[in-house]
Design a protein that fits this description.
By secondary structure, the protein is mostly helical. It has helices at 18-29, 52-64, 67-71, 110-119, 135-160. It is globular.
């Protein structure tokens, strides 16, 4: 509610008072029996300093854990199983493009990505890894996933640094018919 959900029609509502946002969450949860039982608390340790060695370990773990089968070898959401993925209601669902952190539904902070790795995303094929990955391994994956987004940002910035030249014209623009 505070941040909205990037890539969807859900807008951000940071201007709502905190109490109102919390009340709205409780109200919406009332629509589903999934929220009837309390969820387990996920403890998110403080993120370590991400190093090139940690990113490399995360890249290997990305393959070993099978992340590439959905998200693709380079993280674009084009893995071999991507065309066949369905949500729990049977609708086709596309894996997240990890090179586009602006579209992460659960947030882009390291802790947000760690949480998704640990508990998955309900209703989607994104699995739970809290019983198969150690916290250290989860942070390695976080480091690698974040590196995919940084590489995309660097590439976009490099493309934007090309100067654009425009020729000045002395005629006026007919605003009634711009074509």
């Amino acid at each position: 509610i505070t941040q909205g959900i990037p890539g969807t029609a859900m807008p951000a509502w940071p201007s709502l008072a905190l109490g109102d946002r919390q009340a709205l969450v409780e109200y919406v949860k009332g629509f589903s029996s999934v929220f009837a039982k309390p969820a387990a608390t996920v403890k998110i340790p403080k993120p370590p300093r991400f190093t090139p060695k940690m990113i490399a370990a995360g890249k290997q773990l990305y393959v070993d854990a099978g992340c590439d089968s959905c998200h693709g070898a380079s993280g674009h959401g084009d893995g071999t199983s991507a065309p066949d993925l369905r949500d729990e209601w049977g609708y086709p669902i596309r894996p997240r493009d990890l090179t586009r952190p602006d579209l992460f539904k659960s947030g882009t902070a390291p802790q947000d990505i760690y949480k998704v790795i640990q508990v998955g995303i309900g209703g989607t094929p994104m699995p739970v890894f809290n019983d198969t990955l150690t916290p250290e391994q989860s942070w390695q994956l976080v480091a690698y996933v974040q590196s995919l987004g940084r590489a995309t940002i660097k590439t976009a910035a490099a493309k934007q640094s090309v100067p654009i030249t425009a020729r000045r014209v002395q005629t006026s623009i007919d605003r009634a018919d711009p074509f």
